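In this section we turn from sequence analysis to structure. A common task in structural bioinformatics is to predict how a protein folds when a small molecule is present, because the ligand can shape the pocket around it. The inputs are simple: the amino acid sequence and a SMILES string for the ligand, here 80O. Study the lines below before reading on.
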Amino acid sequence: KRHRFWETQPVGQFKDLGDALLPEGPIEQPITLSKVRPDPYTLPALYEWSTCDVDNDATAAEVYTLLANNYVEDDDNMFRFNYSKEFLRWALRPPGYFKAWHIGVRVKANKKLVAFITGVPARIRAGSEVVRMAEVNFLCVHKKLRSKRLAPVLIKEVTRRVHREDMWQAAYTAGVVLPTPIANCQYWHRSLNPKKLIDVGFSRLGARMTMSRTIRLYKLPPLPATPGFRNMEFRDVPAVTGLLRDYLSRFVVAPDLDEKDVEHWLLPREDVVDSFLVESPDSHEITDFCSFYTLPSLVLNNATHSNLKAAYSFYNVATKTPLLQLMNDALIAAKQKDYDVFNALDVMENESFLKDLKFGPGDGMLHYYLYNYRLKHALKPSELGLVLL
Ligand SMILES: COc1cccc(CC(=N)NC(=O)c2cccnc2OC2CCNCC2)c1
């Protein structure tokens, strides 16, 4: 398949696959900052760049609306991600973020926001190297401006702004295969509200299954099974950071999280991110951790339901409680908070619980990519310790 744009970029090229002589690490070396193009790339005549200040409520609302109407849909165009305003503010303002990396495109004549792309800084370890990278996300072009080759300009512009901050690598995901995935992950869904999922066409009634039998199949107890299972609180940040750093060190690619990162990414925020831990009742030691983020989907063309409330598995560490039991408690917590479905990728050790906890395979894949960084080998999902929003 031709990738006119990606063939011009410092990413693993399909033609290089199997070339064992190519070294692991940066594909292109950094250049002197004064040599990084100082001016933005050229947009088609009618459009202008517009850095989006998501602190500003009106601007955050414009970004929310653009994504709600034009962002990623499932393969059958029945659902569209519906990131909330508060979620976007959280996702775009981690420690050390750059407002300049929240990049919009507006129509000059009426200032309508018609495209968007973002980067946030992250420290990501690839093998033994911790690399400062941009996590690039929320690439969105208004449905009416597709096939104008706007996406390559947006990608070049966020790359230029990342270079200006002396960063030379990036991490991103896509539902499509581009040159060249570092991992190809399968997504899985666990029904929490099977009747609604069937009503909206997300799931289908199994063969020889009645609705009442299906509801019974996915039923969960009202309360978590693990003694000491509770919400994470600010005072838990040091212990959770220790748990996570030890656990994530097992994976080939994973974020290098410090306490400030854990405070931002994992302290509970209502309808944005939920996190729980197990505090041993007698020793008060924190032994386990689980978390999920909230990403609803709009239900397109359905008379009775407009939204699907979905939880996405985030970071989970089990050192004393069996992972199966810990994740079942996460399902119970999500069901208690009225989620309709709990989604997970087959990354980290997720494969070990998916089938037993009655997850079903999704109908697509999520591919992970690194920009300007070559890995000797593509990773199995179980070698990947990175979850993007
Ligand atoms: C149910 O509503 C949907 C609305 C839009 C797309 C999809 C399918 C899909 N593409 N799902 C995923 O990419 C996915 C499935 C499981 C876990 N994380 C995921 O994506 C995350 C991470 C990447 N950025 C989007 C959210 C489903």
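The chain is about 25% helix and 30% strand. As an exercise, try to locate the residues that line the 80O site and compare them with your own expectations.
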